[in-house]
Amino acid sequence: QVDVRPLVDGMAKTAFQARNLGRAAEIYARMLRDKDCTIILTLAGSIFGAGLKKIVYDMVKHDMVDAIVSTGAIMVDQDFFEGLGFSHYQGDPRADDSELEQLSIDRVYDHYMDDEELDVCDRTIAEIAESLPKRPYSSREFIREMGSYLAKHGKNPESVVQACYEKDVPIFVPAFSDCSAGFGLVHHQWYAKGEKLSIDSVKDFLELTKLKIAAKETGILMVGGGVPKNFAQDATVSAKFVGHNRPMHRYAIQLTVADERDGALSGSTLQEAHSWGKVDLRNEQMVFGEATVTFPLVAGYAYHSGDWKKRGEKRFGRVIDEMDPK
Predict the structure, then answer these.
(1) Distance between CA atoms of 281 and 25, rounded to whole angstroms?
(2) Tens-place pLDDT, residues 269-294
(3) Do the Cβ atoms of 88 and 111 come closer than 8 Å?
(4) H helices present in the chain, as ranges
(5) In Å, how far are 14, 28, 163, 254 from 10, measured between CA atoms?
(6) Phi-psi region of 108 (alpha: psi -120 to 50; beta: other; left: phi over 0)
(7) Which of 42, 82, 239, 275 would staple 228 via disulfide (CB 3.0–4.6 Å)?
(8) What angle do CA 99, 100, 105 make, to 5 degrees?
(9) Cα–Cα distance between 261 and 255 in angstroms, integer?
């Protein structure tokens, strides 16, 4: 609703992280202008529960992203959870956590979830697993089934999982069991008689490698760090390892509060990733700031620049399904 371009352009003329954010916003707009660029969005943290879900929903609906790599918590505990009709609530980080536990209220810093509603989310995942043919699935394949479920039974249409199902935008969750999906799938495998559904993490990596091979060029917009960050970056190395010498990610942006001093991957720089053959250094930018501040500005700048209007759908889910791994 708010055109942030004048603000971000002004920030770009200052210094420190304001200038970095201005450059990151322009690089994202550049990705959208590049007709050969496939845009991969990576997500970590409690950003949907914190209120940023609609940003990604709009990005999917307006062809501003072609694939998503996420933590399980964002796509299951936060997005699918809200798609079922449940909500996150503003809370207080100074609350009495013992009292919250007794009331079945789960706290994520300054926002809350109803634990009994989250249990419904877990059991719905188990129900979806029971309804499907029993075989190994990639997380992308299973999340597509979650989107199909929401399209039929959902109570909140502004769901990223449902929108990606409808637009055939693949969602990868490489650590899929580390969320409510894990509880639901454990329930399924505990009680299943005979054949069981499972999640194949190697198939996830194979499918993301297929996407990298099929794309002419790629750009990554990373919100936070964690497993999604490295998973998306590694696709270039994986493609080369199976005999397809694809270019490094042409564009790369990371919005993070982590830094490199403790050796953790979340704070490893994009310059470091270049040494691994993952990221081209001509169009890269780190922005050190918390995502509820930085992400709306970067995404809003690119949205109001209007370059997405000329992109169209890529429907990489279909491409992955039809692509011969050889």
Answers:
(1) 16
(2) 888 899 999 999 899 999 999 999 99
(3) yes
(4) 5-12, 16-33, 53-61, 72, 81-83, 97-102, 115-131, 139-153, 160-167, 180-191, 201-214, 226-241, 270-275, 291-305, 316-322
(5) 7, 17, 34, 21
(6) beta
(7) 42
(8) 155
(9) 17
Count other Cβ atoms within 10 Å, centred on residue 231. Answer: 22
3-state SS class at 247: coil
Per the structure block, which two tokens stand in for 58? Answer: 């709009």
**Spatial distance between the Cα atoms of 212 and 237, rounded to a whole number of angstroms:** 10
Pick from 154, 175, 183: which is nearest to 166 by CA? Answer: 154
pLDDT in tens, 70-96: 999 999 999 999 999 999 999 999 999
From the list 278, 309, 310, 314, the catalytic residue is 278
> Could you report the per-residue pLDDT of 1-60, keeping only the tens digit for each?
899 999 999 999 999 999 999 999 999 999 999 999 999 999 999 999 999 999 999 999
The answer to whether the beta carbons of residues 322 and 213 sit under 8 Å apart is no
Sign of torsion over alpha carbons 40, 47, 53, 14: negative
Q: Are strands 198-199 and 136-137 parallel, antiparallel or unpaired?
A: parallel
Nearest in space to 199 (alpha carbons), one of 221, 216, 184, 215:
184
Does the annotation count 278 as an active-site position? yes
What is the CA 69 to chain-centroid distance, rounded? 4
Cβ-contact 5, 282 below 8 angstroms:
no
CA-to-CA separations, 242 to 176, 207, 228, 274, in angstroms, rounded: 24, 13, 21, 20
- For residue 89, list its beta bridge partners: 112
Name residues whose C-beta falls within 8 Å of residue 150's C-beta, 6 or more positions apart in sequence. 80, 83, 84, 159, 161, 162, 165
Closest by CA position to 182, among listed 265, 45, 71, 41? 71
Pairing mode, if any, of strands 251-256 and 217-223? Answer: parallel
Dist. CA 128–CA 279, nearest whole Å = 38
Nearest Cα residue to 180 out of 248, 83, 261, 276: 83
